Amino acid sequence: MEEQFYLLWPLIVLLAAGRHGRIRRVGWVALALALASSAWMAVLFQTSQDPSRVYFGTDSHAGGLLLGAALAIAFPPWSRSGTVRTSARRLMSVVGLGAFAGLVALMVILNQYGTLTYRGGLQLATVLTAVVILVATHPAVRGPASWPRRCSSGSANARTPSICGIGRSSN
Question: pLDDT per residue over 74-127, tens digit each?
């Protein structure tokens, strides 16, 4: 499903935004579709049935991709300033690390057949992941919360764990 999304989404954005620069509208539509997909996942899940259809269905599992697309439109990297107050930088780091801790907790709590997984768990994991990405990619963030930004090159590495920054004393 992801490969199809990555092939089609840029074309959809180009066609929808057109020459009139309606890119923000595309972001809102992506967010609405992400919410709809997530809600559809919760509706489709039945405890008495194999959840494969719910998990692998494009219609019910596009929420994460669409949320990421909406966030990319709302917070393009070139629009964020590296100059923020120290208190804001610390808050972003705490929020990012808290979201990461939440993801670790969800890895322990959720299972492939659980009701919580499909009725809020995967959706919460999607939101927490978005927070981690927003914080980690912000140019003002320092310390452990910035390691993914400093260790990855390209979007493909954002999903590949990397051992980087361990033993570093800078930032």
Answer: 988 778 777 888 888 889 889 999 999 999 999 999 999 999 999 999 999 999
The number of folded domains in the chain is: 2
Q: Give domain status of residue 18, yes or no.
A: yes
0.70 cut: is pTM over it? yes
Q: Are residues 86 and 40 in the same domain?
A: no
Residues 100, 133, 29: CA angle, nearest 5 degrees? 120
CA distance 118 to 30: 20
Of 44, 74, 104, the one marking the end of a domain is: 74
Tell whether 97 is covered by a domain: yes
